[in-house]
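Budget justification note: compute hours in this period were largely spent on complex prediction jobs such as the one shown. Inputs:
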Amino acid sequence: MNLKSFTTDASYASEADLQDPLKAFRDKFHHPKLNGKSVIYLCGNSLGLQPLQTASYIQEELEDWAKLGVEGHFEARHPWLPYHTFLTEPGATLVGALPEEIVHMNHLTVNLHLLMVSFYQPTPERPCILIEKGAFPSDQYAVASQLRFHGFDPKTHLLELGPRPGENCLRTEDIEAYLAQEGHRIALVLWGGINYYTGEFFDLKRITQAAHAAGAKIGFDLAHAAGNVELNLHDSAADFAAWCTYKYLNGGPGGVGGVFIHQRHLGKSEIPRFEGWWGHTVETRFKMGPTFEPMKTAEAWQLSNAPVLSMAALRASYQLFMEAGMPALLNKSKQLTAYLEFLLLTAKESKGLPIEIITPKEPQRRGCQLSIRTPEDRGEQWFHQLTQQGVIADWRFPDVIRVAPVPLYNTFTDVYRFANLLIDIITKDINSSL
Ligand SMILES: *Cc1c(COP(=O)(O)O)cnc(C)c1O
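Corresponding output:
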């Protein structure tokens, strides 16, 4: 299959699906239905679908709990004491980290706070936090409350950097220039790996270098990047990162979060941290002594014992990711998204559709999500019609339809059907208002 060979014929999609080396994975997921028919699910950026095998992974833990009670910590088929470690290798593979740099715990926003305890150390000369303008609201609340907690006013000390006037996405060189100029007063840069609204995938390595050159710490929120794009967290050398696992990683609603802390920060007693017993070195954890002896890995940041049922769901999904392999997933992802872009742009040109794709065009600057900007007075109406016709996507106020064809369970036919439904809805609407 070759990106240049796209056509607008339905036969292209069915042929591409036949040739898809990952085609067997679609049937390993539950697909929601509307009026008895499977929906076109393009919302894996919000909540990934449920793998069929998730139920049996959770069931195993329920059975072992029923049979063994507390002994399950040691005697369960997958013992609960080290349960979080079963997620470490696949988690590290997915984000390009060393296993010791990874721990799964809590939830994304909670983890951002815990990581800011360690890596947001403001001083009077260097008090500020920099985020992307229009960052996900939870991240805005988190940094604003951290600033206030340290006695600073978010109005003056929360810095936000947005695209140039008239542009939708940020340029790396602008982020670099901003950090070179303002970096001396920035303690922490907290940046999205992928902007949830535009779908722009940032150059983590260059932004990290610029932050470090300015003397700031940097952490990434990878909610929309983990399981979606190629990440090399260790190499990109960020201080920390955190992500949720219920979006592209299909870990289930409210699933356990993932955390990365760079190797150079591990085993350092001078880094402040909020601590709890599950971060205590495992050899002596159950001697229950009064002094905290931290793990030498990212697990030092872990406070509580592992939420086994939610981790069981994530194990089920990680197993599918490992079977499919990130390289194959990324390859298919690029093709699916480029195909969607091709269909929409071809129709935009030939039929004059009033839409704009605000996600970057370059494959290395995006994952599978495309954000489609619509006329403000029409878009929501089109979105509702899509929903009525069995498409699950998402609407972002004031004018964007976000769609994410994910390579594990979406097909070229899904993309074809979605694009043609949208094109029909828009064409009818513009013709009827002529
Ligand atoms: C989805 C998402 C969140 C959600 O945070 P939770 O703590 O998991 O509820 C936070 N930040 C970003 C950027 C997100 O995309």
